[in-house]
Amino acid sequence: MVRPSVNTSIHQFQIHNGATFVKVDKVDIMKDNSPALLFHDDGGGMDPDGIRKCMSLGYSSKKSNTTIGQYGNGFKTSTMRLGADAIVFTRAIHGGTATQSVGLLSYTFLRMTGQDDVIVPMIDFDISGHWAEPIINGSQDDWSSNLKTILEWSPFASKEDLLIQFEDIGRHGTKVIIFNLWLNDEGIYELNFDDDDEDIRLRDEANQGGLRKLRKSVAELQSHISYCIRYSLRAYISILYLKRFTNFNIILRGKPVKQRCIADDLKYSKVVIYKPQIPIAKEVSVHTTIGFIKEAPALGVCGFNVYHKNRLIMPFWKVTGDGSSRGLGVVGVLEANFLEPVHDKQGFERSSAFIRLETRLKQMVMEYWRSCCHLVGHNPPGIHNLQKDRANSQASIRPAANIQNKMAKEQNDGLPKGSNEALNTTQDSDVSGKSFVDRICEENIELFMRCEEHAKNEIELQELVDSLEKELKEAKRKHAQLLLAVEAKRKQKNVN
């Protein structure tokens, strides 16, 4: 898919190394005229040691709380998801030494040669002088063997062709070419480069319903950003980062991607502050912008766009149940840095903090819907039942009015003075149904809130139980240690 692979690759090549741009484009392989993906940035690049760490499995030097990509497999998994092979060209200046390196990560090479281990051939050059001087780490034969493997299994047939690839990198930067792109079940490339010259699309998702005439409502839904991100790389990149860049551009097929902030497009928006209960010293406040999409109530798009350290993790996450009209058109945006993303950055670990956030977002939707749904033409909660009850009541009152009055008169004979007035008032309230329906609606909302509160308390109690069990275990351990110490002293005393 475009979403969990191409954008992950983008994140590997930019920003944190001082890049001002990353280019994503289609290139044609000269050997067989097949399409390939190109990623090119002007960041700090990688020295020989850096490219080996990048292209080895499981290594990562990112330990900062402000970055993602701490597992060390993002580059490998994202490139191999797009195609079978990837070749990396990189230049860097470290410690006064300018170097350039080439590395090949090729599934085709490993499979066709029957390798038992993952072999990643690499060659390095010192370019501090007037020409590229090979850097020999092992032996000359090893260097030459790596060069031969790269030339045999990459799109480039000669050493000169490899060196030409560095010409547009400049003094520092990185270029990655992913080739032998994957095919779908029909034998066609998964990535579609033809439908839009300024975009890269996921073929199977983009073609859903494309051959038949769509109803207007369906067409409008499929043109919304919440649907376009399923197949369009340009659409997804536009909301990939929460904060707008001031000195960085993502250039897709020659045209910069315009960043889009979902929160800016909402109408009747408000900011709700949520303070998660997490075991850290500093108090955390999460500001959630919530409102209606511009197309409400025509489109029922809803959900929360949840970011982590500026990067979109869960787009249009629907927290309300299916089949309910409540919450339709309500969209929110928040940054949840207190949660831990899962390995592929397409979700969060289902921790107690995540469950509490989900519960709070449900409450947030219901509270916003109850107070603002009328602004876009929806009836407030309970109004439909109230109107229905009123209509039924009025229909039944007219033909039975005389009978009711007669029965009321017979039943009230002999009652104390003033009782009739009180009884009539009670009957009017019951017949209209107004106070009864309103009370039921309020009770339903109150019960929902109490249910959510009980779920929250259950989580907190479970955490308390876990904590007490740990303390009990530690106390038992200390108790055992004390018994051993007492026994040792007793034996020592008996010896003396």
TrEMBL record:
Pfam families, alphabetized: HATPase_c_3 (PF13589), Morc6_S5 (PF17942)
A single GO cellular-component term on record: nucleus
Subcellular localization(s) per the UniProt record: Nucleus
Main location class: nucleus
Record carries keyword DNA repair: yes
Record's signal peptide: none
Annotated stretches, region: Disordered: 411-430
Residue ranges, compositional bias (Polar residues): 421-430
GO biological process: chromatin organization; DNA repair; positive regulation of defense response; regulatory ncRNA-mediated gene silencing
Coiled-coil intervals: 451-492
GO molecular function: ATP hydrolysis activity; endonuclease activity
Keywords of the record: Chromatin regulator, Coiled coil, DNA damage, DNA repair, Endonuclease, Hydrolase, Nuclease, Nucleus, RNA-mediated gene silencing
Family from the record: Belongs to the MORC ATPase protein family.
Protein name, UniProt field: Protein MICRORCHIDIA 2-like isoform X2
